[in-house]
């Protein structure tokens, strides 16, 4: 059989010789037809050498014969080449026929695999290999089927053959790792996955999942070995776990009997050993195999006894899953549990909701648990359900937001919600914002932050940016919180952050509401909380560009003076927002230009030109250039180092070309407005530097 043949070292060497010979003959025929005379001459020489070797071989063979017939020295070179080419064509044609047969057998095997008939799949792949023994896909497909049949050693052999055909075959490394893992060869499995990553560095996510699986399986086996040792030693916890599970397997008992037994079992689980014994003694089959327990747990309208049973199961699962990833896997992949968790969250029974949230929360504390939740649950529907807990004043609100935060931090929630939020989720969120005074403030702030993280998806951000109801609810919340106690400020801070995210987009709604948004943010500039001032300034730096009327209103409201003050005394991020706001105002408002010149005389802008942040330098140069249009502005800068500073930036090599461009423009305006600056520029050979810099920018 083919399997035995491929395992023979002599046959393996024959296989390698066969591959080499095919390559050599193909290359020789190709070189004989080469337009390059040097290549062709070398090919003819090689053909003559092969002719000589063939003749010598035949002569040696003839001398061993009885009749000692004299052998002709062989055909001429031309005849040999013709024969060689004919042989190559025949081999190519035969390979094409074999390729067709092998592909047909591969498809036959694939069909059997899809139907779960793995033995037939192995047979078909083997027949295909008899037709074409260097077809890599047949080896990996057969390895996959053998994994299903638990033929792990044979699967490893197939993967090794696949790698002989293609040394960068990712599927071969992946399947070989799976086979080694099944054999508890943990080190070998890790090596396979390492080689897979080396062959395809972009498969980092797959590699991490595979390595986590190895770690989990190794940890599980060690725990089970330790638990078996304790059970065999007759220690009390091991005995009690087994006895309780046996009693719970008794059929047709009263539902309160099962509820009480499950509570006792939960109390008996004290640590990893008991958790492992619960798993190895089929504890998770309790829900599946005991119809009374299953019926009580899955009941639509629960009686008091069924409610007690459901709570008991939730406590038990918390006990056996805390810090135990293997148990979390068995629980979260159980079909009944998968179906019931969302129902339990929506049950309306506070106790059930509290314990369900506690169970989900402990699973979401570790990366593996979060991955399981993301894979086996519809987190989009969870988003709406968990948002609903913001209305509760107790611990349920915090637990629900903790779960959403954990899932959003790892992008599980973000990935499932893309490209758009369901209408029901958006409606629920808007309602929460509009009812801000009636809900849990801390939970609402976290909820807003979570929705803000979802705005990393462009589709969701555009969706919210175009939602008039959402914007109006945000503005209403800011109105309510302007005079609210300090504990409500967290919500205002979160909403301002969300607004900044949404203002990355442009929409008709934003244009319509730009004046209202500007007014709310102007009112917040005097707030005692520095974080709120920073975000209010950030919103202004983005919303003013949406409507000219907003700029006029802001300037009339004293925004220039307030932004100038922030630029002088504010933190770096707040100052950067304030400077962007000044750029927008001075670009379209002569009043803003006049006020900035009068209030500052360029001192703050000169200071900002010395910043290490290129964005700040570019904006400061732009703003200065706008202000130089005002009479007396250039004159007020005499005696400063403004010419040298602008020249340094204009002729520099900043990564942002806006630094050079804005600095050069500002320098030009400065010299036109005040000739004495031009004299200083000439002394510094500035015109030559500017000319060179402009040519460089144009070439780029």
Offer a few descriptive terms.
Serine Threonine Protein Phosphatase 5, Tetratricopeptide repeat; about 700 residues; TPR_rpt; repeat; disordered N terminus; TPR repeat
Outline the structure in words.
With 700 residues, the protein is mostly helical. The chain folds into five domains: 91-218, Tetratricopeptide repeat domain (Serine Threonine Protein Phosphatase 5, Tetratricopeptide repeat, Alpha Horseshoe), CATH 1.25.40.10; 234-372; 378-490; 506-597; 601-699. 77% of the residues lie in helices and 0% in strands. It has 40 helices and no strands. It has helices spanning 2-7, 9-32, 37-63, 77-114, 118-131, 136-148, 152-165, 170-182, 186-199, 204-232, 236-248, 255-268, 272-280, 286-289, 291-297, 304-321, 325-332, 335-345, 350-364, 367-376, 379-387, 395-409, 412-417, 423-434, 441-454, 458-465, 468-481, 489-502, 508-524, 530-543, 548-556, 559-569, 572-588, 590-600, 603-609, 614-627, 642-650, 657-673, 675-683, 686-699. Helix 27 (468-481) packs parallel to helix 29. It starts with a helix and ends with a helix. The model is unreliable at 1-7 and 64-74 (pLDDT under 50).
User: What count of domains describes the coordinates?
Assistant: 5
| Helix/strand class | mainly alpha
Overall geometry: flat
Number of strands: 0
How much helical structure, as a percent, in the residues? Answer: over 70%
Strand content: under 5%
Number of helices: 40
**Uncertain spans, ≥5 residues at pLDDT below 50?**
1-7, 64-74
The pLDDT mean sits at 86
N→C terminal distance: 67 Å
Give the radius of gyration.
Answer: 38 Å
Query: Main sheet?
Result: none
